[in-house]
Amino acid sequence: MLTFELPINPPYSYERLRSRLESHPDQQFQLIPECSMLRRAFRIETESFLVTLAFKGGLETPVLQVQTDKSLSAAQQEKLRKTVRHMFQADVDLEPVYQHMQTDQRLAPLTERFRGLRFLLDPDLFQSMVRTIIGQQLNLAFAATLTERLLTLAGDVVHDEQGQPFHVFPTAEAIARLEIEQLRQLQFSQRKAEYIIDFARAVVNRRVELDRLELMSDEEAIGYLTALRGIGRWTVECLLMFGMGRPDLLPAADIGLRNGIQLVYDLPEKPDEAKIRAIGESWAPWRSYISLYVWEAFGAFRRGEFAQPSADA
DNA sequence: GGCCAGGCTAGCA
DNA sequence: TGCTAGCATGGC
Fold first, then answer.
1. Residue A19 CA to nucleotide B13 C1', Å?
2. Are residues A230 and A142 in the same domain?
3. Are residues A145 and A253 in the same domain?
4. How would DSSP label each residue in A25-61?
5. A153 CA to C11 C1', in Å?
6. Which tens digits make up the pLDDT trace of A55-88?
């Protein structure tokens, strides 16, 4: 067993994280809101184990307390620290983003309403890509169901002290070994099953090298990955945002973002992709973060928790 | 019961 | 180069 603390660059809101996880179900996380905690299984190298993450210190002096259910080697500890800092964007400074949003009267109210909201990133790029392909065109609830079935089919499992199972996302090797028909039985469409297995096989046989993305610009990464069947621009934009935490992506084809921009900018009809890109120009160089806030604004609006900015005026 | 979901491809003009 | 049907199913 191992415990350590990670300071987080303030502000960080556990409440906003919880709200996002509730509207974006992820079977890999267990939420324990009464003590501001999360649990999930991690896989570091070949070992899977359970991690409890406790958010201390509140919005303005946040600290993340990390506890594992088994002891780790020094190398594994270092990898876990790095992965956790990455996933929770512990080093990101939101102040320049908020200052930028203050210059747009439509965005300014979001900085207070959602203060401390950050991305919850995927722990690795393979997982991020597979989850994004599953999410293509499907509602979030059904995408989560399909992801959970894939985890159960092909992922490792670890148990907590009560025997409750925590599934670990399958490795590329495990998915590469699957047959199309196995995913069809889980209610994946024929094409989605092909895209996911083909991608896993491309990673395993090194036809695609995800490590190389680190050295590429956003546009280079989009060119590199959209060469693969089943991977379009939206999918890579999401990978760069939710897998890598790149700050300036705008998935203009995204239906949720289109709904969010229509709401925040009080537009009479749903904006098309060109209109989204035109509006997003002024969000640079923080288009990813502002997209996140606009997504959350629309989610809160749908739950009846957030009024249109113009309705307040 | 119809339409929309955090899209993409193949096929056709 | 640009447009559209089809994909699978859940939720409203």
1. 47
2. yes
3. no
4. --TT-EEEGGGTEEEEEEEETTEEEEEEEEEESTTTS
5. 25
6. 999 999 999 999 999 999 999 999 999 999 999 9
